[in-house]
């Protein structure tokens, strides 16, 4: 077999190809069924239209965002024979029965874990009123405790974060919990895996969890068995099934690394070589990470263990109590939080909106995608109109051209309100951060798009008065210096066809 033939066979054997083929087969089966019943197509079309009308009624009465409703109602009305069926298969925002059943342990045991965590957290009375409002929301409605005495260190690149991760991993004595949306074999993961294997051989409890959709092009289906042979326990979130299902909408987009319940990492980076610029598919990859040391790490540990329990059906889950000893150099407060589609609480969006509403002097945002609903757009514009210095950094080189078009379609309204928008010219910016007034800051996994805000499992850390916030601001300003500022005149130069396409895509942006 020649090299060319082997490459073709390898491409055809990829899991993504199998999934696409399986879905196309289902579409063909539906088409054949319609052809077989062609004599009764009139009855079939009437029933389908009735189903589409029912779907529209369901959508209108659902609690979803108006933009998401519109994005589905339009194709249903255009193609009423099939639109309702596709919505039933793929359009539901609420998590499907199969996935919900699989995560029942995660959902049911979460409140008990959170109650224990909250009992050890800090009181909101130690915060000024605006910060206390944010903290109270996260504690009372999300179950995320507030911590003092936890040091937060910000890393302005994946390269810097990796070196610190390796240093801390080599010092592990009890447990290493690792959960990432993307893991890919290469230099970055290879260096980490080498340490994990060594630690597992020393009796350290090493667990790895990754999202199946995120790794479909990167890891083989049998990868958990390979890790098990190295002494590493592995869980795969939401294994892909080759049938149409709304469960495909929901992904574990979190990035968590916890070591001995004493050191924890989260942020934008995944474990693949582009995140440390050993590969450059979209120019220079600008990312970030946050390291916590002290009692607040317990929240990241708890997040991991709850989801692990749901995925693995672990009936005897390991638990850790937060350390009673604060980190001596820590300043300010941290409050790690999680967001999931298991409830109707858009935690990430509410955290962002609270910070935007608190900003009095400046608000700096970095995001790879700028797909905003009316509420978020209004909040950002009101801040700018009220005299707040609002700046947003997005990529100049996108990873998805159509999403970038939609992001740019949001620019005009923001520019008219006085928001300054910058595009990162060296490449793709993947960090997701908000900073306000040298006091509030968020680092996490939550993009400013519909999927992150409403469909995915996400996490982040809200900080008040932490030293990490000054590092975040410095990184923002350094990054801004490598950007081009976008003016309305730049948008006016774009062709009419590009603007028209962006307008159409914007209608369906909640589905991207």
Description:
There is one protein chain. The chain folds into 3 domains: 3-97, no CATH class; 100-122 and 148-329, Endonuclease Chain A (Endonuclease, Chain A, 2-Layer Sandwich); 347-511, Endonuclease Chain A (Endonuclease, Chain A, 2-Layer Sandwich), CATH 3.30.870.10. 48% of the residues are buried. The protein has 512 residues and is of the alpha/beta class. It has helices spanning 3-12, 15-36, 41-61, 66-78, 80-91, 97-102, 104-119, 129-142, 158-170, 187-201, 223-229, 297-312, 347-358, 374-385, 401-409, 411-416, 450-455, 467-480, 488-492, 496-507; strands at 147-148, 151-155, 175-180, 205-211, 233-237, 255-259, 263-267, 284-286, 289-293, 333-339, 362-366, 389-395, 420-424, 427-429, 433-436, 440-444, 458-464, 483-486. It is globular. It has a 9-stranded mixed β-sheet with strand order 1-10-17-16-15-11-12-13-18, with helices on both faces. A 7-stranded mixed β-sheet has the order 2-9-7-6-3-4-5, sandwiched between helices.
Provide the CATH topology of the largest domain.
Endonuclease, Chain A
Chain-averaged pLDDT: 83
Count of structural domains = 3
**CATH hierarchy class name of the largest domain:** Alpha Beta
Under the CATH scheme, which architecture of the largest domain would be assigned?
2-Layer Sandwich
Could you name the CATH homologous superfamily of the largest domain? Endonuclease Chain A
Instruction: Tell how many strands the DSSP assignment holds.
Output: 18
| Residue share in β-strands | 15-25%
Helix content: 40-55%
**Secondary structural class:** alpha/beta
Overall 3D form: globular
């Amino acid at each position: 077999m020649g090299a060319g033939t082997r490459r073709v066979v390898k491409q055809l054997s990829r899991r993504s190809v199998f999934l696409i083929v399986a879905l196309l087969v289902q579409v063909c089966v539906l088409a054949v069924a319609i052809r077989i019943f062609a004599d009764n197509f009139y009855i079939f079309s009437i029933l389908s239209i009735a189903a589409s009308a029912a779907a529209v009624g369901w959508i209108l009465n659902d609690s979803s965002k108006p933009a998401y409703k519109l994005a589905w109602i339009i194709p249903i009305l255009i193609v009423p024979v099939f639109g309702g069926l596709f919505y039933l298969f793929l359009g539901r925002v609420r998590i499907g029965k199969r996935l919900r059943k699989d995560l029942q342990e995660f959902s049911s045991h979460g409140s008990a874990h959170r109650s224990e965590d909250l009992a050890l957290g800090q009181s909101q009375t130690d915060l000024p009123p605006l910060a206390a409002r944010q903290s109270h929301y996260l504690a009372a409605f999300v179950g995320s405790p507030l911590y003092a005495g936890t040091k937060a260190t910000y890393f302005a690149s994946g390269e810097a974060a990796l070196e610190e991760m390796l240093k801390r991993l080599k010092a592990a004595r009890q447990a290493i919990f690792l959960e990432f949306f993307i893991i890919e074999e290469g230099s970055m993961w290879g260096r980490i895996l080498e340490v994990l294997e060594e630690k597992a051989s020393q009796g350290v409890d090493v667990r790895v969890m990754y999202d199946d959709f995120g790794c479909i092009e990167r890891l083989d289906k049998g990868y958990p068995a390979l890790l098990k042979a190295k002494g590493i326990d592995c869980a795969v979130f939401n294994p892909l099934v080759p049938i149409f299902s709304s469960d495909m909408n929901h992904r574990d987009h979190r990035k968590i690394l916890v070591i001995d319940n004493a050191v924890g990492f989260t942020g934008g980076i995944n474990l693949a070589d582009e995140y440390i610029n050993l590969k450059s598919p979209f120019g220079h990859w600008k990312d970030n990470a946050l390291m916590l040391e002290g009692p607040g790490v317990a929240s990241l540990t708890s997040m991991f263990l709850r989801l692990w329990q749901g995925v693995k059906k672990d009936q005897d889950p390991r638990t850790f109590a937060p350390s009673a000893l604060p980190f001596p150099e820590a300043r300010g407060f941290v409050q790690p939080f999680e967001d999931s589609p298991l409830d109707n609480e858009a935690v990430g969006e509410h955290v962002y909106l609270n910070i935007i509403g608190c900003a009095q002097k400046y608000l700096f945002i970095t995001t790879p995608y700028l797909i905003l609903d009316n509420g978020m757009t209004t909040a950002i514009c009101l801040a700018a109109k009220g005299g707040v210095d609002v700046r947003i950094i997005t990529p100049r080189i996108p990873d998805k051209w159509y999403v970038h078009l939609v992001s740019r379609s949001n620019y005009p309204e923001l520019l008219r309100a006085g928001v300054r928008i910058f595009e990162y010219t060296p490449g793709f910016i993947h960090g997701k951060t908000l900073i306000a007034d040298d006091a509030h800051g968020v680092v996490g996994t939550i993009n400013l798009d519909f999927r992150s805000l409403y469909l995915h499992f996400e996490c982040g850390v809200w900080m008040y008065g932490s030293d990490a916030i000054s590092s975040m601001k410095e990184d923002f300003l350094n990054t801004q210096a490598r950007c081009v500022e976008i003016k309305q005149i730049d948008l006016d130069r774009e062709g009419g066809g590009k603007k028209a396409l962006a307008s159409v895509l914007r209608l369906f942006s909640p589905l991207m």
